[in-house]
Amino acid sequence: MNRRVPYGIMNFAELIDKNSYFVDKTRYIEKLEKYQNPVFLRPRRFGKSLFCSMLQYYYDLKEASRFHELFGNTWIGKNPTGTHNQYLVLKFDFSVIPVSEDIIKTESAFNRICVGRISQLKYAYPELMHDFQDFSPDTDVSTALSLWLGYLQKSDAPQVYVIIDEYDNFVNQFITSHQDHLYQEVTSGDSFLRTFFKTLKEGRQTGIIANIFITGVLPITIDDLTSSYNIASFLTLDSSFESMLGFTQEEVNGLLDLIFEDYQIDPIIRPEIQEIIKTQYNGYHFVDPDSDAIYNSTMLMYFLQDFCDKKKIPKQLTDLNLRTDLSWVKRITSSTENAQNIVSELLQTESIPYDEEYLVSKFNRSQFFDKHYYPVSFFYLGMLTKKDQFLLKLPNVNMQKIFAEYFNELYNIDVSTRYASMMQSFLDNPDLTRLFADYWQLYVGQLPEAVFTRVNENFYRTTFYELCSRYLSTWFTWNLERSYPKGRSDLEFVGKYHERFAGIRWIIEF
Alpha helices, DSSP H only, in 155-283? Predict the structure, then answer.
């Protein structure tokens, strides 16, 4: 039976049990052990939850009997540290916490879910907690955590390894929904969240907690909690961890080797597949802009799952879930005018200046939504990536398409009701000159004069591509600025190998 493409799998044991493809990141376990209380931030869909699950199975003492089964074929399985399967593991996932406009209800949900997670450990480790008393229904999580850690310490139990996945997920919902006063309540004073992190810090000080690993997307909350949790090691911008999440080109090459062999796919189409995925899902530089770029791992798996199933290039190359991140653009820019300005700038220049100090310095929520911090905000959300030491850029064609779609939304540009005849004519009689002329009349003709006087060839290329991809993606894929020995092509139409325009590559210079 062929191995599975693990799109949507976030449980490490499930991935192994279902014989799924696995890009081995286990060598980072040894690297992480050199740091106290590591915090690692990455955009959504970069494999954070799966990595947290891998840590859970590696450190959990109750999974010791499965160590060889789960890790035997991995780097860490052949080079295990002395800490494997030595701890009680307490894992929280803050993405499951519902939020409410009533802060009391949010606190109640936080307590209920987190206390429930602690209570479950009585059944996970019955020999260590057989006489531990159940919590009363109204126990808050900080009290429950303190009582549980105290019990373990008195009973001479093994240490605890704490994992917090999506640490800022529920708090970010206050930000995206314009409820800044609720965010302030959660992250200031003696709030339930600050008290929770103080309890974790105390557990580290007493030694009952061996280490704490935290993942999330944005640095805002962890910075605003600094006085309560000033023991973190921030590894997000550490070059030795740049490819801990996401795939390198070498890793993708190895993955494709296996897929083409397992699924008996004709190797003659491999260059076309590699070209597509590199254009769509590669291009991320989180630390060193001169290093090898990183692929968005989840987006790549989204493509490969459909490709392996149908042996064809999927019609839709963008996971619909990725578009939900645009809510952050609206919130960060505060106003439609600000959003229009920065989106227009990105479509015209494809890059934007940034101050590298802003990436590494601490900043709070109010700074995060200041105009000067827009590039930094988009960087942490995965919408922009490093081009060099002075500029951030859109990482790939996927993100260029999403920003072009957002431009159309901001300016109320119709991209859905007037193009059927234009596209059908092109399919019947492929004429690129006529296609662009129709685009100019039907699409560019809608631009407000103030916009039209500012746009340039980058804008025309990106919006022309976005419009064509809406209607012609059954038959074509596209490259923007593809590199060749003698230079770059502006835009390419590439016929899919299994459709009527197979073998065709049209190059357009703007």
Answer: 169-176, 180-187, 192-206, 220-224, 249-262, 270-281
